[in-house]
Amino acid sequence: MTRKIDTPNSMLLLGSAWLAIAGALALVLGNLIGSIVVPGHDWIANTVSDLAAGKYEIIQDIALYGFAGSLIACAIAAANLHLDGTRWNIGITCLTLLAMCVVVIGARNEYGDNDNEGIVIHIYVVYVLGALFALLFLAMARGLSSIARRYGVISYGCAALWVIGAPIFFFMPTEYDGAYERGLGLIAVVWVVSYSLMLLSVSKETRYPETPQ
Question: Which residue has the higher pLDDT, 181 or 122?
């Protein structure tokens, strides 16, 4: 099932898609590079938070800011390519708030270094981030399905994995919570990449519409 797109800005969608993909790639590469560079880091036992404090914190900070930019690009494109009324608006709001949460997590530097001075908000931001991702995946799935069924299926699949998997993270043994957290992050990356591929397909359709037979 496909849906005819009225008047999206093809170049905006194209640019947003590639920015979103670049931001998702930055998150993955930043984590991989940080895990290699940071001395003694165990990617299975140590969480991503441990990479974002200390001598090499700039690596993970860049990764987080890159992913925040990815979410903003997704939100901009979604505002231009409005597919599903109120649900789509909720998705745009979630994307914007998620970008803010990621920036706060990157900027505060209060995790991974046993910081207990002042107001420590990291854990509360994580709770909000978890709820927003679940809502995002569910809210935008129907609109994505209107472009092609596979995009909706991926979004619903991400929602199911996230709703089931995210709460378990808080009960994971510390020996394994690093790997588990990375698995959750991969769900978000998969959604962003799928969403970006949808934008690329719509951008191509609007630039090169099919010739009537």
Answer: 181
Question: Would you list the DSSP string of 89-157?
Answer: HHHHHHHHHHHHHHHHHHHH--SSS---SS---HHHHHHHHHHHHHHHHHHHHHHHHTT-HHHHHHHHH
Count Cβ atoms below 10 Å from residue 181 Cβ, excluding itself: 20
Could you tell me the two tokens for 213?
A: 């037979």
44 CB-side CA count, 13 A: 2
Task: Name the residue with higher pLDDT: 22 or 119.
Answer: 22
Q: What angle do CA 94, 30, 35 make, to 5 degrees?
A: 120
Residue ranges of the domains in the chain?
A: 10-201
Residue whose pair of structure tokens reads 């978000």 in the numeric block: 188
Alpha-carbon distance 155 to 139, whole Å?
Answer: 9
Location of structure tokens 């939100």: 75
User: Which of 37-51, 97-111, 132-146, 195-209 shows the lowest per-residue confidence on average (mean pLDDT)?
Assistant: 37-51
Q: What is the DSSP letter of 64?
A: H
User: Quick check: 202 and 34 in contact, CB under 8 A?
Assistant: no
Question: Across all residues in the chain, what is the average pLDDT?
Answer: 86
- Say which residue the tokens 């940080």 belong to: 34
Residue 101 has pLDDT above 80, yes or no: yes
Radius of gyration of the chain (CA): 18
